[in-house]
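Give me the 3D structure for Type IV secretion protein Rhs.
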Amino acid sequence: PQNLRFQGQYLDRETGLHYNLFRYYDPQCGRFTQPDPIGLAGGINLYQYAPNPLSWIDPLGLKCTHFAKNPKQLHASIKDKWGHSMTKRDMRELQNTVDRIKLNKPRYSNDGTPFSNTHTVGNPNSQRLDTGSGPYREWTVKTPDVGTNGARRIVVDSKTGRAYYSHDHYDSFVEINLGGWK
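Predicted structure for Type IV secretion protein Rhs (182 residues):
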């Protein structure tokens, strides 16, 4: 029988544990049985096993890296992702758009219209949404003091109801929870 396990671990048949050069991993409870031997202090749990490395990669840039449950978290995500501090007027326009989405009341010409989710919109290097679902509906978030509608949008997945805010006209997204907005 084959004794190799995930990520080069070797099965110790006597104990049922997986050996990883300097310590044992218990597949039943999903953690190592000894703390990190080189003392990297990788967080609170020194016995944890690294998550699946295949989920860490994003070669096509399709994964949303930020999620916000409410306006305060979105403000922090926008500052972290794009380096922009939202003003009270910016946040008010964002709240107005969320209200229009919830009430299904379009205000601008593209509100509620289908969003193609392709690289043909805006920058060719832009991020596509990778939700495995769709179709998507697009809603304008008015940018204060800009003559046109501006670049900000919220895109809503019609099947799942998940919503994504783009501060830079579809170049990248922050996932938002519309239920967290009052």
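The helical segments are 71-82, 88-103. Let me know if you want a second pass.
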